[in-house]
Specification:
The protein is 41% helix and 25% strand. It contains seven helices and eight strands; from the N terminus they run E-H-H-H-E-E-E-E-E-H-E-E-H-H-H. The longest helix has 27 residues, at 212-238.
Length: 239
Amino acid sequence: MFSESDLLPISALQHVAFCERQWALIHLEGQWAENRLTVEGHHLHDRAHKAETESRGNLRIARGLRLRSLRLGLSGIADVVEFHRLGDAPEKPNSKPEQELIGVSLPGVPGLWRPRPVEYKRGKPKLGPYDEIQLCAQALCLEEMLGVPIPAGDLFYGEPRQRSEVALNSDLRQQTEKLAARLHDLTRIGKTPLARYEKKCDSCSLFSICLPKTLGKAHTVGNYLLGAFEPVEMEAKEK
């Protein structure tokens, strides 16, 4: 279990999953650069992060809900957490434990309610599971805080303006937990990884700061020269 002072931001998980060097530049060195994608993302999250609640019949919507997990050492703010009413008593368990619908009580509201996180993203779904990992981390925090299983959540993408359901299965949960452990390891190490260019670098707002093509190439040449001269040095020592 982590202490409150050891908690790291949930959003950092997405950076680590995408690129450990990007994570280090942002969270260790404090470097940041805006591009069109990040600006649009900020506007979308600013609207979602306004702390407020809304009622729509059997649906309660909480915006800007603070999350934490002492087990994983994470904290953050959920864009939206929906609470769907289940009734005045827990529903009977289904044959499969992961499909159980167990609800929580809400202050001043009758019945039991099932939580479901919704994360807002600009643009289109990404090729990697970066958004799914962030959503899963939010669900794991909610499960720890509320004591109920959360089998699924949703990602809302701004460009197609539609929701996509994400099943929070065991594989995604394990991947998220491993990344949380990796995040804490990297924080303890406190070093920025060397640059290495990949195609995904082209869409990164830190491209001009990271310089993956220049620094990555220099690192490759350096390794080549080191390998080329090492045998010569060894022969000189032997003579």
